[in-house]
Amino acid sequence: QDGLKQCLAEFRQQLTWVERLDVTLGPVTDPAAQSASTSDAVDPENDFQREMSFYRQAQAAVLDALPRLRKLQVPTRRPDDYFAEMAKSDQQMQKIRHKLKSKQEAMERSEKAKQLRAMRKYGKKVQVEVLQRRQKEKKNMLNAVKKYQKGLSDKLDFLEEEQTSSQGNKKGNANQRTKKGPNAKRRYKNQKFGFGGKKKGSKWNTKESFNDVSSFQAKVAHNKGPRKGGKGGKKALNKRPGKRARQKMKNRAR
């Protein structure tokens, strides 16, 4: 014991506290522990209690050392322009940035692919619904036509619905055409030649013309009336000349 004390006296240096910065204190007392009147002994096998005691001891040292350092005018905060070298090199950090960027791009691509798949599923669903609706409308119309043909119904509402749907599909284009109107060339031709009117189906019979029999003459229709043009009548006028007569006509023309 005497030898140890002698060695301690030989290497001991009488330095100020600011050169040593040693703080020896116990942990900060926990008010909850005091109220619960628990013992200060820490179980070394309990990791949580052991680490908590270290934390409270460091907290007590900070609370004791900070006022002393401020009293000695020793700065305790790091300046804003403080530069410290990174533990990893710039090349390693660049690799990490590239890896993070590639991971983020992969996540974005995956998200876009998910959105595209969802949109395709929704588009297919809408298409199937439209096809089902059209088939249902077609089936209803065919049933209505069959009922009308068999005389079970005298309603023609299905025709009006079909015309309404077709007009609704062409409404946008028709509105655009009416708004724009014909161009200058078309207007000039309309002014010069007129519109011409409807030509297709102009010679078709209508209900009125079919029922109108006022101009019908049975004698003329059955060749029983008086013939014009002598003995042969109309037949004689339209009779084709013989072969010899046709040959003479060709010789005269030459």
UniProtKB/TrEMBL annotation:
Residues 28-49, 98-127, 158-254 are annotated as: Disordered. It is found in: Nucleus, Nucleolus. Residues 102-114 have a biased composition (Basic and acidic residues). Residues 115-124, 177-190, 221-254 have a biased composition (Basic residues). InterPro entries: Ebp2. GO terms for biological process: ribosomal large subunit biogenesis; rRNA processing. It holds the Pfam family Ebp2. The keyword Amino-acid biosynthesis does not apply. Its main location: nucleus. GO terms for cellular component: nuclear periphery; nucleolus; preribosome, large subunit precursor. Residues 164-176 have a biased composition (Polar residues). Keywords: Coiled coil, Nucleus, Ribosome biogenesis. Belongs to the EBP2 family. It comes from Cisticola juncidis. This is EBP2 protein. Required for the processing of the 27S pre-rRNA. It comes from the Eukaryota.
